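Fold it.
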Amino acid sequence: MGQCGITSSKTVLVFLNLIFWAAAGILCYVGAYVFITYDDYDHFFEDVYTFIPAVTIIAVGALLFIIGLIGCCATVRESYCGLTTFVVILLLVFMTEVAVVVLGYVYRARVEDEVNSSIKKVYDEYNGTNSNAQSRAIDYVQRQLQCCGIHNYSDWQYTHWYEESKNNSVPISCCKSNVGSCTGSFTHPEDLYQEGCEALIVKKLKEIMMYVIWTALTFAAIQMLGMLCACVVLCRSGRDPPYEPLITGGTYA
């Protein structure tokens, strides 16, 4: 019965290590997606530490690939030292993922304050030229999120760009995508996006942070199962050595 438990644990452990390899790719993808997306919105928040969860999850993904390799080799070769190393590293990664979840919740709560404190400054620095980083950021956000102004399109009347241009209009990026003749004029408000960008930016950034949190929680749960199986194999092998290997057919002294 005990031998059956060891074999089952080893089989599950090998399968989990294959999952770890897949997880490594997924974590790196999620981390890179978060990093790139946040880079598109970085003008709207000043706290560079917001990138920490994304960078950490990429590092964890890279480490998971190595862990999967160690785990597979240690399980198949029945290496007590290898399995011990596997469990220790897995525990450290698990703790890191817990830290990512905590940081994710902390920074998710701070996103709204960050955006609120910086968005007006960004809009004030808009000048409508492609060479201006703030202008590119605002035009990108207004097109992507289909919004206009901070709270609504009328906010543009209080910007430096509106005062200098004196054309009674908003940027073309405020125009609805299905209106081809839109010039951004205030005389045709039905052609403009009605919703403000501030709330949508906050919503978008919070959604991205939730991707990080749920990804970290999912793979942390899988890692707990991996540690449990490895501990079963270690305890059984220490109590009743030697145990039956997964790959049979070899000769033993």
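The chain is about 70% helix and 0% strand.
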